[in-house]
Specification:
The protein folds into three domains: 21-259, 3-Layer(aba) Sandwich (Rossmann fold); 265-320; 326-457, Mannose-Binding Protein A, Chain A (Roll), CATH 3.10.100. It is built from eleven helices and 19 strands. It has helices at residues 3-24, 26-33, 54-67, 80-94, 130-133, 137-147, 206-215, 222-237, 263-315, 361-369, 384-388, and strands spanning 36-42, 71-76, 99-105, 108-111, 114-117, 135-136, 151-157, 185-189, 244-247, 326-330, 333-336, 340-343, 348-351, 397-398, 406-407, 420-427, 430-435, 440-445, 455-457. Strands 2-1-3-7-8-9 form a six-stranded mixed beta sheet, sandwiched between helices. A five-stranded antiparallel beta sheet has the order 10-11-12-13-19, with no helix packed on it. Strands 4-5-6 form a three-stranded antiparallel beta sheet. A hairpin with a 3-residue loop joins strand 11 and strand 12. Helix 4 packs parallel to helix 6 (137-147) and helix 7 runs antiparallel to helix 8 (222-237). It starts with a helix and ends with a strand. 37% of the residues are buried.
């Protein structure tokens, strides 16, 4: 075999190997070559509750995305029509294929579990105006679904507080979970559903500032980018703001894929990265299982101790419910030394305070069902009407969760720490709640977060 023939055979062999690697690792090859399209919107100059950072966030995000190879359309302080036109044009661009990214910074509200982005110039005087004056995020997802492109990213830094809450029949905070999105979509919120994010005191919001920094980390997969952002926000806010993602991604995506010297090196690097993520995922699973097991053990131990106490009381000829002494009165309300408050007008016995943190409806029900203060075992969730019986617009105090809202409770003996409280009634996937800042009754998805105040019928 002569030298020329040997070189030809070697060349053919290399081409076959390269083709195999290209077919088996499409995510890596396409990461740097696939078309990238982005629509970035930042709204700041609202006539009511203007925001400092969204326009800066949008401008800086657009610049960064262009540096990362995206073709970017930037809209700042956009009207309703400008936003809808830009979203439709964005959808048309996505039909050409590749990766789509939608970024929004500004005011956003949720109504009946749907999220709406507030344009500049929107005239919203009541919650029924939102459907016609704001832009439903479902429009963005519909355009992505119709385009049928490979991968889409939706970034919503729109969880700042609802500026219209005082004029709404029902008070809502933050954004709701988007449960129906096209396959191959990642949706990320600047904080967890139902929570409020900080606008920020610097040029950018804390979320966007962290996101831009980590997007530029070479070789960092998209899921790891948002994990790093979540760690940043957790440290900066003491756990008060926790970014949230929902993902149906199937392949790998890198904002900054970096340069590989050859496909072989790329393959080895990707394989190692996948193995590392699998190890981390397994560690997380084991940790969560261990924490759950420890919680179950602690609960079983608590139940065992309670049962033993009851048996000792019964054997001693005493009532299983300890006697309580009156310690304070406030009109019709009587506080006892066992941590309960009796409403003499309704014969309802209340806990002296709500649970003190936001939880979903099912966890709120579990909290009440397992509440054992005073030695009573028949605590439950209150109805909307029972909560309304505690509302008194002539009395006010500042809520612990948000100093901007006044809370109107008939007695100081019961500590309502936030304006929204779950009630026991349900309607499909929704559950009832009551708002002590305005006396309204509302219905919200059971998956969002409010607080709860246990109650029982006094005998």
């Amino acid at each position: 075999m002569n030298r020329k023939t040997s070189r030809l055979i070697l060349l053919i062999h290399c081409l076959i190997c390269l083709t195999f690697l290209t077919l088996s690792l499409p995510g890596i090859v396409n990461a740097a070559s696939e078309r990238r399209t982005a629509l970035v919107i930042g709204n700041s100059v609202y006539s009511s509750s203007p925001l400092k950072n969204p326009a800066n966030d949008a401008a800086d995000m657009a610049t960064n995305l262009q540096r990362l190879g995206f073709s970017v359309t930037l809209k700042m302080n956009a009207s309703h029509q400008e936003m809808e036109d830009a979203i439709r044009d964005f959808g048309d661009q996505l039909k050409k294929g590749g990766v789509g990214l939608f970024f929004y910074a500004g005011h956003g509200v949720q109504i009946s579990g749907r999220n709406y982005l507030i344009p500049v110039g929107a005239r919203i005087n009541r919650d029924t105006d939102v459907k016609f004056q704001a832009v439903d995020t479902e429009i963005v997802l519909a355009e992505m679904g119709n385009a049928g492109n490979n991968l889409n990213i939706v970034i919503l830094d729109a969880c700042r507080d609802n500026p219209f809450v005082r004029s709404f029949r029902t008070g809502s905070r933050g954004l709701a979970i988007i449960s129906d999105a096209p396959r191959g979509t990642l949706i990320t919120y600047s904080t967890s559903p139902g929570k409020v994010a900080a606008d920020g005191s610097g040029r950018n919001s804390p979320y966007t500032e962290s996101l831009i920094r980590h997007m530029n980390t070479t070789g960092l997969p998209i899921e790891e980018v948002f994990k790093e952002v979540r760690r940043d926000l957790g440290r900066k806010t003491g756990g008060r703001q926790v970014p949230w993602e929902l993902s149906s991604l199937e392949g790998q995506f890198y904002f900054s894929p970096g340069k590989q010297s050859s496909p072989v090196i790329s393959s080895a690097t990707d394989k190692l990265s996948v193995e590392q993520r699998q190890i981390e995922a397994e560690r997380d699973r084991i940790r969560k299982e261990r924490e759950l097991f420890e919680q179950q053990e602690a609960l079983e131990e608590e139940k065992r101790i309670l049962e033993e106490k009851k048996k000792r009381l019964v054997m001693g000829g005493q009532s299983s419910i300890p006697s309580a002494k009156e310690i304070k009165r406030d009109g019709r309300f009587i506080a006892y030394d066992n941590g309960t408050v009796l409403d003499t007008s309704t014969s309802l016995m209340w806990a002296t305070a709500d649970n003190g943190y936001d939880i979903n409806w099912q966890n709120a029900k579990n909290y009440c069902d397992n509440y054992r203060v005073g030695g009573y075992t028949d605590w439950r969730m209150p109805t909307q009407g029972e909560l309304a019986g505690l509302y008194d617009p002539s009395k006010s105090r500042r809520g612990v969760c948000d100093q901007r809202y006044e809370i109107h409770v008939a007695t100081k003996l019961i500590d309502i720490t936030c304006f929204g409280s779950w009630a026991s009634e349900t309607r499909g996937a929704d559950a009832a709640n009551f708002f002590f800042n305005g006396g309204e009754r509302g219905w919200y998805r059971q998956t969002i977060y409010y607080r709860v105040l246990p109650v029982r019928n006094a005998k």
